[in-house]
Design a protein that fits this description.
40% helix; 240 residues; putative 2-phosphosulfolactate phosphatase; alpha/beta; five-stranded parallel β-sheet; 11 strands
Length: 240
């Protein structure tokens, strides 16, 4: 029996679509890249929440001295939070052994929205092959969810989804691509030889560069630099 691979290129993410699937959430700039970086650098776990108020309330329940508050609004660190959403901030010195509560404009909302599916992983270009290998060992259909930007399409996430589809095709012999997956894969293959330039051309990448985060764009456009697979277990993203 073949396994379906589908890509949702932006919100919404209907519950009936995600419920039975093994889901990979892609937010290349920057949430899923940052989550993978944090876990690679020793964070105990990352709890994705929808908005800053939820993050603050959860930190108070867990004990403010036990967690780090992380996140952004308009790409900048939220006032009173410990870290922003730049992968460069999540060094081993900053996050090793810590539980992180994270809220971002797009990525953590997507992770929360699909939390009822068969499994949930955070995928980016930096850990593309590692996530593909993990998904290949599951039984059932694969759904790749693009976090998007401002409730709509984001070029960098579509490219990241396509890169993941491309890797899955080398691991799942009976894969059946749906149109969204087919479109994303075609897009990725068109830009694979100039991946960094393609990511840098995206609207959100240009916004980040204007805000002083051009280095983040370059870091997030790197392919297969991390081998960590963040997976959601009991509401916490941990290294699989």
């Amino acid at each position: 029996m073949s396994r379906s691979i589908q890509v949702l290129l932006g919100p919404p993410w209907p519950a009936e679509v995600v419920r039975e699937a093994h889901v990979a959430v892609v937010d290349v700039l920057r949430a899923t890249t940052t989550i993978a970086t944090a876990l690679r650098n020793g964070a105990a776990g990352v709890i994705p929440v929808t908005d800053p108020a939820d993050a603050i309330a959860l930190s108070q329940r867990l004990g403010r001295d036990r967690v780090l508050l992380c996140g952004e609004q308009e790409a900048d660190r939220i006032e009173g939070f410990d870290l922003d959403n730049s992968p460069a901030s999540f060094t081993p010195e900053a996050v090793a052994g810590k539980t992180l509560i994270m809220t971002t404009t797009n990525g953590t909302r997507a992770l929360r929205a699909v939390s009822g599916s068969a499994s949930v992983r955070a995928a980016a270009l930096v850990n593309r092959t590692a996530v593909a290998d993990a998904l290949a060992h599951e039984y059932g259909d694969v759904l790749i969810v693009c976090a998007g930007e401002g409730g709509g399409f984001a070029l960098e996430d579509a490219i990241g989804a396509g890169a993941l589809v491309d890797a899955l095709l080398t691991s799942i012999s009976d894969a059946e691509l749906r149109d969204g997956a087919r479109a994303a894969a075609l897009l990725y293959r068109c830009v694979a030889t100039r991946l960094a330039d393609a990511i840098a051309s995206a609207d959100h990448a240009q916004h980040l560069a204007h805000k002083g985060f051009a280095g983040d764009v370059t870091r997030c456009a790197a392919l297969d630099t991390l081998d960590v697979v963040p997976i959601l277990r009991d509401g916490i993203l941990v290294a699989q």
